């Protein structure tokens, strides 16, 4: 009888230890998720800062962006630099959209992307040409998103 009683207490103790381990694991997973989100935010900020730094410190990009905004023709070298810059910019937003679809970012992220697409692709002939010839190098989700924004902006401008 005494061994049954000891066995029950050991079983209860083991079950409590398992329960405590599960609670501890849940807390650890939550903390890990929060830390991952913080690292993603930091990575996004770093990408944006790197791109901005490249723009501001470049001897070429600011002048090229001004020429593009003014609708001036670019040399072949400037066009190459512009396309490389646009690819980097869109790659950042492709990554943001993918992270958003995985639930890792807030709802505000996709709302910002259409504005960028409108400025650099819809209202920009060089951007449109770039997009049409390079969209397959981006994720399918991003390509569909950009194409939907382009179609929506085209429909809005005809109405």
Short synopsis of the structure:
This protein is 85% helix and 0% strand. The protein is an all-alpha fold and 159 residues long. The model has no long low-confidence stretch (mean pLDDT 84).
Structure description:
Helix content is 85%, strand content 0%. The protein has 159 residues and is mainly alpha-helical. It folds into two domains: 1-57; 59-159. It is elongated. The model has no long low-confidence stretch (mean pLDDT 84).
Descriptive tags:
159 residues, mainly alpha
Overall outline: elongated
Strand runs, count: 0
Secondary-structure-based class equals mainly alpha
The major pleated sheet works out as: none
How helix-rich are the residues, as a percent range? over 70%
Mean pLDDT: 84
Low-confidence stretches: none
Q: Evaluate the radius of gyration.
A: 26 Å
Number of continuous helical runs: 6
SSE string? HHHHHH
In percent, how much strand structure appears in the residues? under 5%
Annotate the secondary structure layout.
Blueprint: H1 2-57, H2 61-69, H3 76-101, H4 108-122, H5 125-134, H6 140-158
Helix pairs in contact: 1-3, 3-4, 4-6
């Amino acid at each position: 009888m005494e061994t049954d009683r000891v066995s029950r207490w050991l079983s209860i103790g083991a079950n409590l230890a398992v329960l405590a381990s599960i609670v501890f694991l849940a807390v650890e997973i939550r903390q890990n998720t929060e830390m991952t989100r913080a690292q993603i935010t930091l990575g996004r900020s770093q990408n944006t800062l790197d791109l901005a730094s490249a723009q501001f410190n470049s001897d070429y990009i600011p002048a090229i962006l001004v020429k593009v905004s003014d609708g001036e023709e670019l040399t072949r070298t400037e066009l190459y630099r512009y396309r490389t810059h646009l690819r980097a910019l869109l790659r950042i937003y492709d990554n943001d959209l993918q992270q958003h679809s995985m639930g890792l970012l807030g709802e505000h992220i996709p709302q910002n992307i259409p504005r960028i697409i409108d400025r650099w692709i819809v209202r920009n002939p060089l951007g449109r040409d770039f997009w049409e010839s390079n969209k397959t190098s981006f994720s399918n989700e991003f390509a569909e998103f950009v194409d939907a924004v382009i179609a929506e902006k085209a429909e809005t401008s005809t109405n």
